[in-house]
TrEMBL record:
Superkingdom per UniProt: Eukaryota
Protein name: Uncharacterized protein
Gene3D superfamilies to which the protein is assigned, alphabetical: Ribonuclease Inhibitor (3.80.10.10)
InterPro entries cross-referenced by the UniProt entry: LRR_dom_sf (IPR032675)
Amino acid sequence: MDLGCWRLSVPISFPAQIWKLKHLRHLYAPGPIMLRGHYSEPDVVMWNLQSMIAIVFDKQTSSLINKGTFPNLKKLGLQISQGCKDKWPKLLQSLQELSNLSKLRISFKRKLFEGSMSRDYVRVAFPPNVRKLTLTGISCMTDEGINALGNHTKLQILRLTGGIRMNSFDLYFGSHSFDLNCVAGGFPQLQVFQMTCLRVENWKLGNGAMLCLRSLIIDNCDMLNDLPLELWSLP
């Protein structure tokens, strides 16, 4: 099911009857979608559903995942609003139920006119079988966050994107930079790493980190001082 090309930022709510579409395999939408539970039929399972894009990640979505509603989901795109910023690490734990998930995209939505809003750090464990992970709308990452990602042995593609493109004002007035420290042996299967619009200033690679890296894309990360020397010795 493809819902076209509307660009509304206000979420729309699907009727509960959507769970009657037992043969539905793909659910795509450019704008945010709020899922509704079907409380009269708690055992509804969408066995054929393989991908959902632009889903608002809230308690309802987390509850449906925990109930095993999407056992064969392989691709998932989630949108997290500012109102859930304090709850999303706990909500994300429900993704552990998606054992077949291989592609995950999480977008943190910033409110208009609030400038360079801070984002929660990545500090949760993502599903172990995820091979492609995209995080957009983040402003910084702690050492614990990047190392948690580095411990995912099946991760092959990682894309990290900030919320807005930086300009000269961002670079010299009031912007908070951060360091990206990858411990030794981290990201053992990572082949593609992309950073876009991040305020990363120093990037360090521990011994043996990112040994399988084949493609590195850095776009509009103007605070970055230099590339790690270890990159030049990768096989």
